[in-house]
Design goal:
The protein is about 45% helix and about 15% strand. The protein has a domain at about 15-75 and about 105-139. The protein is an alpha+beta fold. The radius of gyration is 17 Å and the shape is globular. The chain has helices spanning about 15-35, 75-85, 95-115, 125-130; strands at about 40, 55-60, 65-70, 120-125, 135-139.
Length: about 140
């Protein structure tokens, strides 16, 4: 018998709640497409989420929900993320990383404003666990 670490996942939401979230996610996608954004549901495919635009995700956990986030093109994302592997001075990050973070921050603000204008309830989740994502809690 081998010892494997045991990871306790959070409890899953009921199928009815997940179904409601799926419907909400489709409404979010429709509104964002109507505003002219490229929108995908990476959680529904096996394809890696590498295209720029908005990703809309449904999480099945009880404390989960519907999330949306902006993804930059690899031309900006690649160099910015490569800097993390090299180690950076967080008090004075390189210009490309500052720009990358500014783009994500501004797009998060824009998405929150656009979705709120369309009648959605949105919130900014904990940035330490969700980065620049936004959470859509209802309409």
């Amino acid at each position: 018998m081998t010892d494997h670490p045991r990871f306790d996942l959070p409890p899953k939401a009921s199928p009815e709640i997940v179904e409601e979230r799926e419907a909400l996610a489709e409404q979010v996608c429709r509104e964002l497409r109507g505003a002219g954004f490229p929108v995908r549901r990476p959680d529904l495919t096996d394809d890696p989420d590498v295209l720029p635009g908005i990703g809309v995700y449904v999480t099945p956990f009880l404390d989960g929900g519907v999330y949306a986030s902006w993804r930059t093109d690899a031309e900006l994302r690649g160099p910015a993320l490569a800097l993390f592997a090299q180690g950076i001075d967080y008090d004075n990050p390189p210009p490309v990383l500052r720009h990358y973070n500014t783009v994500l921050d501004q797009m998060q603000t824009a998405l929150m404003g656009i979705l709120a204008s369309a009648g959605f309830d949105v919130e900014e989740p904990d940035p330490h666990t969700s980065g620049f994502m936004i959470k859509v809690t209802g309409r």
